Amino acid sequence: MRLRTICYYFREALQSILRNSWLSVASIGVVAVSLLILGGSLLIVLNAGNVADNLESSVEVSIFLKDEATPEQIKEIENKLIGLSEVAQYVFVTKEKALEEMKQDFGEEKDILAGLEEKNPLPDTFRVKTHMVEQVAPLARQFEGLAQVDEVRYGQGVVEQLMALSHWVRIAGLTTMVLLGVAAVFLIATTIRLSVFARRREIEIMKFLGATNWFVRLPFLLEGMFLGLAGSFISVAAIYYGYFLIINSIQVSLPFVPMVSDRDLIILLMEGLLFLGLLIGAAGSMISVRRFLKV
Amino acid sequence: MIQLFNVTKMYPGGIKALDDVSIRFKKGEFIFLVGPSGAGKSTLMKLIYREEHPTRGQVIFNGKNITRLRQREVPYLRRKIGMVFQDFRLLPQKTVFENIAFAMEITGASSREIKRAVPEVLEMVGLAHKANEFPEHLSGGEQQRVSISRAIVNRPVLIIADEPTGNLDPDTSWGLMNLFLDISQRGTTIIMATHAWDIVSNMKKRVVELAGGQIVRDEEKGTYSL
Ligand SMILES: Nc1ncnc2c1ncn2[C@@H]1O[C@H](COP(=O)(O)OP(=O)(O)OP(=O)(O)O)[C@@H](O)[C@H]1O
Ligand SMILES: [Mg+2]
Predict the structure, then answer these.
(1) Which CATH number, 3.30.1330.90, 3.40.30.10, 3.40.50.1780, 3.30.70.3040, labels domain A60-154?
(2) What are the boundaries of each domain within chain A?
(3) pLDDT band at residue A152, thresholds of 50, 70 and 90?
């Protein structure tokens, strides 16, 4: 294709955008908002996953043994743990060790615990970590009924809630995004339809002069793609700067919350959004070009 | 060069614009299509540049059956045909030069070719000095000259002109006719529909008369009416 022809396509597309400037701005705005919501929910999901990962490593199952459990019975439970593939690691904490830890936790006020050495109320305990959070509850259930086991405990609820939150953010974000995305496609289609209408005489003349269908269509396709891309640029810029601003303030005020700050990953996400904007624009103009440009 | 075989054209609503028309136009001919309003002159020309499809019959252009032409081949057919209309059909936001250049841009011509060919045709129609004017600043006759330049700039084998002098005074019309004669003398076939009886009678070219969608007269060196 000749440079002159390419210049022609871009010039025509730009002229149309300026001619329908208000509708162009609206189209760009809707694309920007829908991609902003998509990008925002993706980041929330990403971070919820990250927090869940971190919790995962701190969630463990505690198996409290009965006082009367014999060393053989304890060995039996240990063998069972060794045999389970979901177990990542475990430690056996004797009642003496447990009391020791407790005293350390109490620090200055450890006197309260004085005298407990003679009649230690704490049980012997296995502390078990699984490979994945989802394995915690089933594992706990396997040990709950056993004769020598007194009680099984784990961070019931917290993990499940976090997973549920990330699930709902995903669904809500996706629904809004799809709805807004469809709105964006149709707004772009409307803009392009107006452009086609404004140029109907020109299009007619082009056809008489022997222009191919693609020669007639391409400026409109470019126009739509430009609108989509402009919208996604705005959302990407807003998300990028907004996100790193939020990360920085969280790292100052809530340093223990693990945030995703991998720049390469974020940039990949932004590239995805730009591509999506382009796609929305192309889809919108294709609808109008096909329906209103009977070339 | 162009042959119509038993062509019938029905428009939606049952109007028979052409009724079993067979005719042959030879290369280099200058043909006037005459006849009352609604006779089917425009329709016959539309069949040649594939604006309309015949309901029955075949249209052959340069040995090719264009009734069977696929939609994406139509642009290439039209590039071989220059078209001139009563209402000029120039783009108002483009200058005279740009209007003519546009016809070349569409075919993918290079800047160099455009810069060479456009002044040449403008020179030929006597409008070289108006290259940078906008169409609305030109008289009707001048606008029609621009549209004729645009029609010939891609060196078509055929010119189709539908009442090219319909909106113009007799003097201007004669000026344009001389231009068409020039073009014809270079070997380009010209098919022109017109109601300008004095022009037809004086030019002594082939005259094809239509009435009610049928050919009622076809004479070499004819006049407007019997
Ligand atoms: N697109 C169309 N749909 C329906 N009927 C049409 C259409 N175009 C033309 N006709 C009808 O077909 C007949 C022939 O029309 P055509 O335009 O070919 O006549 P013409 O000889 O060019 O007339 P004029 O001298 O007024 O230009 C007329 O009755 C016209 O009303
Ligand atoms: Mg007509």
Answers:
(1) 3.30.70.3040
(2) 7-55+161-292, 60-154
(3) confident
Q: State which residues have CB under 5 angstroms from ligand 2, the bound ion.
A: B 42
Measured from the Cβ of residue B117, the count of other Cβ atoms closer than 10 Å reads 20
**Using an 8 Å Cβ cutoff, are A33 and A235 in contact?**
yes
Question: Which residues fall within 8 angstroms of residue B52, CB to CB, at 6 or more apart?
Answer: B9, B43, B46
The ipTM value here is 0.87
Q: How many interchain CB pairs under 8 A, A with B?
A: 48
For residue A150, is pLDDT > 60?
yes
Q: Do the chains contact at B72 and A4, CB–CB below 8 Å?
A: no
> CB contact, 8 Å: A4 with chain B?
yes
Interchain CB contact of A206 with B (< 8 Å): yes
Q: Which residues line ligand 1 (CB under 6 A)?
A: B 11, 13, 15, 17, 35, 37-43
Give the C-alpha separation, B220 to B202, whole Å. 13
**Over the stretch B76-96, which tens digit does the pLDDT of each residue have?**
999 999 999 999 999 988 899
Q: Read off the tokens for B75.
A: 């642009």
Token reading at B209: 């008369």
Ligand 2 centroid distance, CA of B1 (Å): 23
Predicted structure pTM score: 0.71
Using a CB-CB cut-off of 8 Å, the residues of chain B touching A211 are: 75, 106
Query: In the predicted model, is pLDDT for residue A295 greater than 60?
Result: no
Question: pLDDT tens digits, residue range B138-150?
Answer: 999 999 999 999 9
